[in-house]
Amino acid sequence: WDAGLNWVQSFARKSNFFPALKTVYDNDTSVLNSFFTMMCCVELQKVGQRAWRQFSGVSSLTNAQLKERVEDFVNANVLGRFDDRFVIVPEVYFTDADLQRGYSWSLRIKLYAPNMKTVMTMSVQANRLDDLVAA
Fold first, then answer.
1. 7 or 53: which carries more pLDDT confidence?
2. pLDDT on residue 10
3. Rg, Å, the chain Cα set
4. CB-based contact 64:72 (threshold 8 Å)
5. Distance (Å, rounded) from C-alpha 24 to C-alpha 34?
6. Cβ contacts of residue 6 below 8 Å, gap of 6+?
7. Which of 105, 74, 68 has its CA nearest to residue 90?
8. Which residues pair with 92 in a beta bridge?
């Protein structure tokens, strides 16, 4: 696990399972530790690049219109994807440098993902049957 390896364990006589599909990211408390979250991040990068290609060279939109259209584009490109595992929020904004240049904008796609559960603590507690009846 510390080396970022995924492995198969026995589940039953004739079946196996992967305890988890994890990335090489070494912080176990991070959502980036999950293979599925990372694959979503990769796809969001691609969606962002498609948004840039779609809107690059546009001169007929105000900054407010560009913001709305790019965010709508991203939302449309992630709608119904990723098995509803994530919340995805695109945010177009203009830095001071963007406003000074007049030809650039910034896109941040926020991804909210659940933590992957990989560890279970289990115990067996033995009690007298009389204790069950008394309860």
1. 53
2. 78
3. 23
4. no
5. 9
6. 18, 20, 21, 22, 35
7. 74
8. 107
Cβ neighbourhood burial of 95 (10 Å; 0-12, 13-18, 19+): exposed
Our measurement of the distance from residue 102's CA atom to the centroid of its chain's CA atoms, rounded to an integer in Å, reads 32
Is residue 10 within 8 A of residue 16, CB to CB? The reply is yes
Q: Which two tokens stand for residue 32?
A: 């980036």
Of the candidates 21, 24, 10, the one whose C-alpha atom is nearest the C-alpha of residue 117 is 21
pLDDT tens digits, 21-34: 888 777 888 999 88
The Cα 90–Cα 45 span in angstroms is 12
> Helical H runs in the chain?
35-55, 63-78, 96-101, 129-134
CA angle 129, 131, 132 (to 5 degrees): 70
Instruction: Report the Cα 31 to chain-centroid distance in Å.
Output: 7
What average pLDDT does range 108-131 have in this prediction?
92
Locate 73 and state its tokens: 């584009």
State CA 91 to chain mean position distance.
Answer: 16
What would the pLDDT profile of 31-62 be if each residue is shown by its tens digit? 998 899 999 999 999 999 999 999 999 999 99
